[in-house]
Amino acid sequence: MTRILVAWTAAFILLASAPAMAQDWSQTFHPDSLPPELSEIRVVIATGGPGAVPAGQALRENLRQSGSPMVIDNPVISDVQGLADLDVVERLAHLPVDAVVIVRTFGDETETEAPEEAPAESGPEASAPDAPEATSGAPELAADAADAPAEGADQEPAPAVNAAAAAMAMITFYSLDGAAIAGFMVYPGVALTSEQRRNVGRGISQEAFDATKSALEDARAGEEEKSGRLRLLQGNGRDWKLLDRETGETIMHADIYRRLEREDLAASYEANAQRQARRASLGKVTGSLGLAALAIGSTLAISTYVRQLPSESPAVAGCSDYGHPRVQQNCHSQESFDALSGQRVAGISLLTAGIVGAFTGLAIYYSRRSIELHPLNFPKTRELVKEANAAATREDESGDASPDQALPRADQTDEMSLEFAPYLQSGPDTQGGLQLRGRW
């Protein structure tokens, strides 16, 4: 009995530690085995499948240890097993990350199928009618078997434990636009190979992100206009360009709307441009006057501190009554400073006005950007381009059709036709009527 208890204790310890050993992902996602490019991007991790939570946690911790700027768990869906990858990316695209990492785990199929095959392998000996014969032949063994569980009971808990364990995991990196940029299969306790690290690094590098984003933006921008000759491009800021693919001509400013045959929009653009120019001129003039006032005022104010009135001035006439030259000099300086106080106040006032004028002119000059040049926003203007392309396509199609194609030809008519023709026969027996004619 003691041996049975010891054996059962050892088996229980092994079974309890089996999931932990199967779920040891720390070496798989060790910081030294991860591509260095992972430390340059921000990711959100979404997990799904049996035993996916430990795999996701290990990946998150090791990414943080490797220096990744931001690693967050999926805050929207706890388990993504029943969702497609693109649905997961769409739900997480609003997060401030660069990529979505989906971790999907899979169990060991051989272990889950074992319990279904066990009854077939037991054979006829395990059937119920034969059980009394086996126990009657060996009473002592039957008693021991009654005390100890059957052998099949040892294997019964194993499928339940392994059902929550992951034998492998598929890691897929997606950009926020839904493009798969890297993917690889991993196993518990097995680190990434150097080839896997290179492939993953190339997929998630900043160059790959930029190329994928640029390709998607080009595809999205040209989706509506790919059938036409005109294409609207948005450059830096408000610099829009209309490209004629046939001639290679680049059209800008109000000519964009003239090319689209919208003179009203072209006039609005020119009026807005004139308003911008007037505001810019007003800002320049105001700023220039402010700078001039600043220069004059500062000159006047500073000169009052160093300038002295001439000795003949009535303001300093009383200083000559002092006998000592130094006293006379001090009196002269003080009286001159007091006499020039009005000029000093005027200079300081002019200096202050100049500062205010300079900043006001600067504000007016840069406020011209608040006036929108284009009467329509970019999406609406793109719709106009789309309509112009569609109209041009219809004209080309109608122009290609010749008059001969518009009218039916003789060889295109039906092979058989019927027609009625009136007739009149004169003579002794005058008669008339309708005659039926047929052709085939």
Automatic annotation (TrEMBL):
Residues 120-157 have a biased composition (Low complexity). Residues 109-119 have a biased composition (Acidic residues). It comes from the Bacteria. The chain crosses the membrane at residues 163-187, 285-306, 345-366. The keyword Transmembrane helix applies. Residues 109-157, 388-440 are annotated as: Disordered. Residues 1-22 form the signal peptide. Keywords: Membrane, Signal, Transmembrane, Transmembrane helix. This is Uncharacterized protein. It comes from Lujinxingia litoralis.
